[in-house]
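Q: Structure tokens for this one, please.
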Amino acid sequence: MEWRSAGLSWADGSPVLGWERGGVSPLVVGRHLGFRVGGPRRCVGARGNPCPDAAVVAGRATQARCAECARLDRAHSVAADTIADDPRTYRVYLAWFGPGMVKVGITREERGAARLLEQGAVAFAWLGRGPLMAARRAEELLRVALKVPDRISYARKRAVRSALPGEAERRGELERLHGFAVALDGWPESLERLPGGIVDHGEAFGVERLAGTRGYAVTELADGGVVSGELVAVAGPDLCLDDAGRLVVLDSRLLRGWRLEGVRGTTRTTVPVREVPVEQGGLF
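A: Here is the predicted structure, written as tokens:
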């Protein structure tokens, strides 16, 4: 049977690996995780529809889509501001990834904290809830007022993960920013401001187990390449594996589009890796 990854998701606060043919595999810390990839890597299509050309995509790409499918996927994306009449309720959040690394964003209320877990937010707080366009206006207002970016790269998130401050310091920074944000004038009238309440994902991500470690990030997958090791932690989309004393970090988005075959025993990781730089983060 051919197995192809449908990506990593967080179900009820726990990470699982989904499969294109249906079903999920729980990702359990302490267990061995190993697979060999088979190519070529094919485009995963857009919005649940297969790629009409079954196009080959690069091993370094995190989205696993050809240019045309990427365009179609983006054309129906809330993130791209292409859907203005969505009737669902949205929430505005403040997400913390490291000292001075904060962003404001929005997510559908029905998704709860899943979007924050997927992004690798170590801590977050809700700011408001209401219609999509009101949430969008509040997002831009807060981004400018707080002087924070609209996105933070996964490379930067990985670079600070081994040197994060404790939970009390994380909560303190978010509480200060939350208080400043909800006191601002200019919020859309249709958006309900929400009281503070910090949610910390440090335990879910295993940040204590990653503290002080030197990681090696997988740069690309290739036909016949192997990734193998004991699962140490899962943070956002990243699988952190102990490969005979070396911490290998695999962005699970690289898995999509490949055929996967399980491997066991003492097989070592053979795909290219690059040392993850350590960044202390900047103070807000």
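A few notes: The two ends are 51 Å apart (CA to CA). The first strand starts at residue 3 and ends at 11.
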